[in-house]
Amino acid sequence: MRTDDSPAPDPVTAAVPTATPATVAVTGVTGYVGGRLVPELLEAGYTVRALTRNPDRLAGRRWADDVEAVRADVSDLDATRQALDGVDVAYYLVHSLGTGRTFEVRDRRNALTFARAAREAGVGRIVYLGGLYPDVPEGELSPHLSSRKEVEEILLASGVPTTVLRAAVILGSGSASFEMMRYLTERLPAMTTPRWVDNRIQPIAIRDVLRYLVGAAAMPADVSRGFDIGGPEIVTYREMMQRYAEVAGLPRRLIVGVPVLTPRLSSHWVGVVTPVPSGIARPLVESLQHEVVCLEDDIRQYVPDPPHGRLDVTRALELALTRIHDGEVTTRWTSASVPGAPSDPLPTDPDWAGGSLYVDERSTVVEAPSEVLWQVIEEIGGQDGWYSWSLAWRMRGLLDRIVGGPGLRRGRRDEHRLRVDDALDFWRVEALEPGRRLLLRAEMRLPGLAWLELRVDESAAEMTDEDTTGPAPEEADGPHRTYFAQRALFYPHGLLGQAYWWSVAPFHGIVFGGMQRNVARAAEQRAAKQRDADAGA
Q: What Gene Ontology terms describe where this protein resides (cellular component) (predicted)?
């Protein structure tokens, strides 16, 4: 599988071990870069072992059946050491985001654990993708760049030959840096911006990042150092936005830099204007306060440029925009969970011994085939909305953005298809049984844990008169009638969680009831159009 954002075939990616393919382990496989790196390594001939805390999150990815999925958390020494046993090259693509300073402690602890596990497991090389940072005095780097530098130093001191690739702004469909710049440019024909818009940066296309990552696996054993990687151009952020406007067919933007916007204010401003939450925008903004330009270009000695050369800014933007317009974005920044969002799985015990579990359950019979109903369900969110009181959804999304959550602006990776772990506005796909069941976990800011489950069943045997809002169950055995069940579940945290549930419960009939009625109506209308089209044909 290859995308426009992926490396083109060249001698570097083809340089693979001969008799026995080398085994490479990849962490961060559900993230933006890791999810794109895995298929490139497979195409280059490597045997790939995917390290993930939850292997179920790999379901739906085209390469899931081609890798060895191993359950391991990089904070767990024993599990990581066991997962790295027999590995020739280990990719460390784990980063923490968010505000506060706890991320530094977490990143330091995880890097130390991974370094020790790799050494004790006999790994031949570590490859790490870090951040490009300027040569400035100690203490002047932003907290996130300082943490990236510390992780780099820990891995280089591990005793395992290590390749560190330092990148600044990565341009590719779905990257956080690209999405931030894209929405700022598209939504604001005129804007006041922080002074950092005139700092020099050296962006790099995701295609070239992946090519360097794949090439780093075959470096000589005596090479253990960091490399600056960047594209062929040095530009300012202002110039990059103007280039995007030109590529997107927009008028030239009026950009006025002002000195009063601090990184904190800037990140909140970005969080309001773009889909990128302030918690993720802040480290991006902080890193842009520095001029991030490659101080050396030594990587080309080991991973030569492809015949067509590295992509310049304009071409990288064109390719990214093409992928978005074609609906072929393989990974997005939303692949990573929102900092602070709940990750607990849906409780399977119906009695929920752990405490109160509130449920709003509804069902109906839809006059449409199950495959048509499923099409409508799988297309919810994003541009199509949530098929109910749109003002209530928008207000809930706005309140979530104000308190630092993702809100509704994350949208979807694909307008028609979902897969496990996809972000869907302020939900995330936790489980997916195509044609039958969709389970969404809330990542909005809540005093508790919440899920929304949608189920499709051609059999109406489980329905009762009390829980059916459509035709009677005995009438639902025709070939074009489908049972549609919907559950909203909430596990409150403390008294505040209890108060939250009971304060919003009166609106469930409008929000969830309206959602079920309108989804059913949309499926019935789509089925009717298909019948008319078939009759005409």
A: cytoplasm
How sure is the predictor about 260, in pLDDT bands with cuts at 50, 70 and 90?
low
- Residue 183, token pair as written in the block: 């929405």
If we measure between CA atoms, which residue out of 445, 200, 426, 211 comes closest to residue 305?
211
Q: Which of 486, 496, 404 is nearest to 448 (CA)?
A: 496
DSSP string for residues in 186-239: HH-SEEEEEGGGGSEE--EEHHHHHHHHHHHTT--TT--EEEE---S--EEHHH
Provide the token pair at 202.
Answer: 């050296």
The kind and range of the H/E element at 529 are: helix 514-536
Domains of the chain, start order: 23-322 (3.40.50.720), 358-536 (3.30.530.20)
Q: What H or E segment, with its residue span, contains residue 130?
A: strand 125-131
pTM of the shown model: 0.68
What is the per-residue pLDDT across 296-349, written as a single tens digit (0 to 9) for each? 999 999 999 988 889 999 999 988 888 776 656 566 555 555 444 444 444 443
What contacts 24+ positions apart, CB below 8 Å, involve 358-361?
Answer: 358/489, 358/490, 358/491, 358/492, 358/501, 359/487, 359/488, 359/489, 359/490, 360/487, 360/488, 360/489, 360/505, 360/508, 360/512, 361/467, 361/485, 361/486, 361/487, 361/488
What is the number of residues in the chain? 537
What does the alpha-carbon distance between residue 108 and residue 216 come to, in Å, rounded to a whole number?
23
Dihedral sign, Cα of residue 342, residue 344, residue 348, residue 354: negative
Identify the three-state secondary structure at position 141. coil
- Helix, strand, coil share (%) of the chain residues, nearest 5: 40, 20, 40
- ∠ at Cα 338 (334, 340), nearest 5°? 175
Compute the chain's Rg from CA coordinates.
25
The contacts of residue 486 (CB under 8 Å, 6+ apart) are: 361, 362, 363, 452, 453, 454, 455, 512, 515, 516
Amino acid at 98: G
User: Taking phi first (over 0 means left), then psi (-120 to 50 degrees means alpha), and beta for anything else, what does residue 381 get?
Assistant: left
Longest dimension (CA), the chain: 77
* Strands 423-424 and 427-433, bridge-based pairing: antiparallel
